[in-house]
Structures are given as C-alpha cells and as structure tokens.
Amino acid sequence: EEYYKHKASGDSTIVKLSDIEKDVRKTLREAGVPDSMIVVSELGNYRNRDMSSTFLMAKRLSATVSDFDQIERISDRLDRKGIVCFNITKIDNSDMGQYNRQGLKAALDAARQKAEFIAENEGLKLLMPYEIVETTNEPSMYSAFSNVAYDGGSGMENMRRIVRRYSVKVRYLFQ
Questions:
Q1: Angle at 96 between CA 106 and CA 165, to 5 degrees
Q2: Whole-model pTM?
Q3: What are the E-state strand segments in the chain?
C-alpha cells in the first residue's frame, strides 16, 4: 500500500505503488521466484471514510514458491514499508507426486488392515480386492499454512505442517 515518507523538515511525500511493487518483485526474483510465477490478484483499496479521508492505492501480488527456503529469503529481505499483508497461500513442490503416492499407499494399507481384521473376526479368508475407488487426494479443507508475522518476530518457526488427507474405498472378496 502506498505510504507517506516523512522528511526531517516536516514535509512528507507519497511513496508510489509502482516503486513499492518494483522493490517487492526484485526481492521475489532474488529469492528465486521468476516473474512468470507472480501475478496481480487485486488492485485498489477499500478505506473506511469515517476513519480517514486519505485514500492510498494498494495492490495484492500472488507468488507461487517452490520451497520454504524461498519464503525465508523473501521474509528476511523484504522491506516492510508499504507491505500491509504477507500470506502464504500455496507452495508448489516438485516432490508432490511422490507424496501423493505415499499417501495413497498408506490409505490402501489401512484399508487392507481393516479388511484383514474383519475377516479374522468373522472367521473368513481375505482373498483380494475387487474394487478400489480413490475418494480424495486433495489437501485438507482447512488452511494448511499460518501467516508469517513480521512485527511479532515469529517468522518461520511458527509455520504449521502441510497436511494432506487421502481416502480410498476398497471392496474385498472374502471366502
């Protein structure tokens, strides 16, 4: 968001949105985020006119990063002046396919263990699965990240884990 830079003489000048954006984009590039992964997601500002008659322009940039190290570099280098919000909404990871397979395997193993328990309890023999339906491999519906707080000094040590949930419906043949 634009802000006023105060001079020693008592005067102040407005720091334009284009200057702030230029610095933010430079910081993102230096952290390894290419321009192609940065998009403008919102432009404008909503001010409560009862609180202040001053209207400052604001712009929201969304960037996709590939690892937590990039977030650390951005957080360490980003000039806080003119930044009113910094949220992590998405991290793309090149290992996500492997994580998805591991999650699916764990869900299949859990289904098999449950079927083995049922077979043993009922005096049946577990033969083989005859239907497997993956019911979800999406991230959990609740927020997977917390905000990175600047002023509280809390930084990355307060990040929460990324949580993904996997579910399968497996029907087994029993004898």
A1: 40
A2: 0.51
A3: 3-6, 12-15, 38-43, 59-63, 126-136, 167-174
